[in-house]
Amino acid sequence: MYPFSSYFSSSIGFCNFCTSYFWLSDLQQYPTDAWEDSRHQTTDYVVRRLRPLQLEDAIRSGFVHYPHDLLQISVEIWWAINDTFRFLGYWDKPKFKSIADEEIWKAALDRLVVLLNPRVPIQRLMLAEVHRNREEYSKCWGLLAANTNLELEKALCKMRAACMEKNRFLIRLSDKN
After folding, report:
1. For residue 30, pLDDT beyond 80
2. Which residue, among 113, 80, 74, has the nearest Cα to 94 in the 3D structure?
3. Higher pLDDT, 1 or 150
4. What is the residue-averaged pLDDT of the chain?
5. Where does the pLDDT of residue 154 fall: very low under 50, low under 70, confident under 90, or very high at 90 and above?
6. What is this structure's pTM?
7. Among 70, 6, 68, CA closest to 32
8. 3-class SS of residue 13
9. pLDDT by residue (tens digit) across 98-141?
10. Please, is 138 exposed, middle or buried when counting C-beta atoms within 10 Å of its C-beta (0-12, 13-18, 19+)?
11. Rounded Cα–Cα distance for residues 79 and 173 (Å)
12. Is the separation of the CB atoms in 23 and 63 below 8 Å?
């Protein structure tokens, strides 16, 4: 199990009819079991999982108002781009699809440094990973040293090793692919 899995879930949709963003939680009907298909039929429209560029646009457009929402969307961007590396098999040296993706990923990391709360254990772990991705290894190490959750020890060991090796790229925290 990934220690961060299901901590955040996709939260924004885009309506092609009215060309505006909306919170999925505002939908009256939403079939959660169909999300893996990336397309859902609701009563009146189709909801598609947004790409990182669209999520960044939602932030820049002013749609995202509150810090907790900005945190959620920034995590979604970070994970979506990391998932691209993961699914394409770029574990050791990720290749960004475009310069825009790299810039969006870095902007999300910059926001996460400010928004993640190191007093919340799972967010402290996420913040350590953000610092590692940003090549801020001493900050990463300090945050990892503060984690004592025995259930996460295997993942913590892998994260510590990546930090010591100055590896900013993706690592497998689970034995599952």
Report:
1. no
2. 80
3. 150
4. 81
5. confident
6. 0.79
7. 6
8. strand
9. 889 899 999 999 999 999 999 998 899 999 999 999 999 999 99
10. exposed
11. 14
12. no
Is the four-CA dihedral 95, 97, 100, 106 of positive or negative sign? negative
- Within 10 angstroms of residue 8's Cβ, the number of other Cβ atoms is 16
The rounded distance, in Å, linking the Cα atoms of 134 and 53 is 20
Tokens of 84: 């691209």
Work out the angle at residue 143's Cα, subtended by the Cα atoms of residues 122 and 107, and round it to the nearest 5 degrees.
75
For 106, the token pair is 């870095």
- For the record, the structure tokens of 78 come out as 């970070």
Residue type, 84: T
Gap between the Cα atoms of 105 and 85, Å rounded: 12
Q: What is the pLDDT of residue 1?
A: 30
pLDDT recorded at residue 122: 87
Tell me the C-alpha to C-alpha distance, in Å, between residue 153 and each of 16, 159, 165.
Answer: 45, 10, 18
The amino acid sitting at 116 is L
- Show the DSSP H helices in the chain as ranges: 52-60, 67-88, 99-115, 121-133, 137-145, 153-164
By residue count, the chain amounts to 177
